[in-house]
Amino acid sequence: MTGVSRSICRLGLVLFCLPMSVVAVNLDDYQWHNRLLLLLAPDASAPAVAQARDNLERRFEEVVDRDLLVIQLFFNGQSLVGDRPITVSEAAQLRLELGIDPDEQVLVLIGKDSGVKRRAPLLTDLQEIFTQIDAMPMRRNEIRERNQTDGSVFTP
């Protein structure tokens, strides 16, 4: 192994061993950039959480197409913004801001305008969420602009 290869391996090992950086969360930072889909449950290991994650993974392209950022907030367990961890205190603050009780299992959709658009059971069918998003004026404009750019025809 050359000196450069050895250095790269050491750097990789050091980076692998470092704790994942924690993200500071202010929902206003996402205004006009992302729609937010918050999954809230008492415990990160709850079966409903696993099922909601599986549903989102199966429909990943549709999530991305709608500029959805998934935020997972738990009373017990690691909370995440996308795939980045957030602190327990920040998760608690967000739950407080949203008025979510520690024992609730709920899904919250926040539009690009930062308004809460839906509060529903955690296992709400994603197609209902996508249909609601696709009916939003901003989303309809996004689709119209995309159709003009690439010549495709898609109308929800």
Which residues form runs of ≥5 with pLDDT under 50?
1-22
> How many distinct beta strands?
6
How are the strands ordered across the major sheet?
Answer: 4-3-2-1-5-6
Write down the overall mean pLDDT.
84
Which of globular, elongated, flat, extended, rod-shaped describes the shape?
Answer: globular
Set out the fold topology.
Blueprint: H1 3-17, E1 35-43, H2 47-58, H3 60-65, E2 68-76, E3 79-81, E4 84-86, H4 88-98, E5 106-110, E6 116-121, H5 126-134, H6 137-150
Parallel strand pairs: 1-2
Antiparallel strand pairs: 1-5, 2-3, 3-4, 5-6
Question: What does this protein structure show overall?
Answer:
- With 156 residues, the protein is an alpha+beta fold.
- The protein has helices spanning 3-17, 47-58, 60-65, 88-98, 126-134, 137-150; strands at residues 35-43, 68-76, 79-81, 84-86, 106-110, 116-121.
- A 6-stranded mixed sheet has the order 4-3-2-1-5-6, with helices on both faces.
- The protein is globular and about 45 Å long.
- Residues 1-22 have low confidence and may be disordered.
Question: What's the short version?
Answer:
The chain is α+β, with helices and mostly antiparallel strands and 156 residues long. Helix content is 43%, strand content 22%.
